[in-house]
Design a protein that fits this description.
Layout (H helix, E strand, L loop, with lengths): L5 E3 L4 E3 L16 E2 L5 H10 L5 H12 L13 H10 E2 L4 E7 L5 E6 L5 E9 L2 E5 L3 E2 L17 E2 L2 H15 L12 E6 L9 H11 L12 E5 L3 H10 L3 E5 L5 H7 L8 H9 L10 E7 L7 H10 L5 E7 L13 H13 L24 H14 L5
Parallel strand pairs: 3-4, 8-11, 11-12, 12-13, 13-14, 14-15
Antiparallel strand pairs: 1-2, 5-6, 6-7, 7-8, 9-10
Helix pairs in contact: 1-2, 4-5, 6-8, 9-10
Amino acid sequence: MTDTSFMKTPQVEIPVSAAGNIPNNPDHQGREDLIGLSREQLAERFALLGEKPFRVNQVWSWLYNRGIRDIDGMTNISRETRTKMQDVFHISRPSITSQQDSEDGTRKWLLKFGDRNEAETVYIPDRDRGSVCISTQVGCTLTCRFCHTGTQKLVRNLGAAEIVGQFLTARDSYGEWPTPNETGRLLSNVVVMGMGEPLFNYDNTVTALKILTDPDGIALSKRRVTLSTSGVVPRMYDLGRDVGVNLAVSLHAARDDIRDQIMPINKKWPLKDLIKACREYPAVSNARRITFEYVMLKGINDSDADARELARLVRGIPCKFNLIPFNKWPGSDLECSSWDRIERFADILCDLGYSAPVRRPRGRDILAACGQLKSESQRERLKRHQTTEAPPAA
């Protein structure tokens, strides 16, 4: 049923977001953001403006196929309709606070949203294509010991417009408009592995993923989208049903006692529940295996026995492992396993029939590697606090 609550503007009325009392990502004039609205929501908005259903396809193509940032540039829409749209809608992008380029070609953006909160987005190139790593929260509620982001408390969830906007910003940066075909893309994949736990921001994340995979816009194949979760078990079932993108699970231990220590979420959803959800994930198959991410921590989870227990734990699940050398960050007391130990661990898994490549760290020099993301505003705030609290020099 169409939402019947409204926000008034000088000329027309637009519906309030189903999630609250304000429109989707409003600008300073209170105009609703076209970015982040689902097709169904756009249809409702245009019906209330007296527009025909075909208007949705026109606008969708301008936003997500051509990457337009100005309503007035939608030249196949009448000037009268564009004026009407401009009264109630805007088209957003996060503003870029900073951009850093790594020696290995990785690019990281610190993006600022309308309320001045920030999150990080990373592009990781791989030969003639690459992945955009997007965030779903500012900060994180989880406190995984190996993750820098987990040291930044959760500020808020990102809206669908802000999640999609990260990919749009990356496309702007590389000039990849209009949407190229499947074989001609630099930005070919999305990994939902940035700041935050995406399944704790489920509705906004799913809306964003549906926009990213819509064939008439950005047109990413679902097999090129991977969402990583720390193990929010109930939502894993929902994700498989609602979008069916690839699933990656931050596993990092084969026993509850170890996982409890490094990932407190395990106390709520222990391994037996997590592994059951993986076995029953609707989209899993031999062609689309679950990826188990496993950060290599010296003396904690990297023994021969750990490797064998890991293989027993996931037996029967179409899966592969992604072994991640721990990326050191300021303040961490953890150490990365030695390279010899990582190779031995990988060899054991391979001998037991599992693919277990070691992820090559990317963007370490700009703190863009796995587990290193943390918004620069938080770093600067901490630095100022430490300077204030430091005793005067003798």
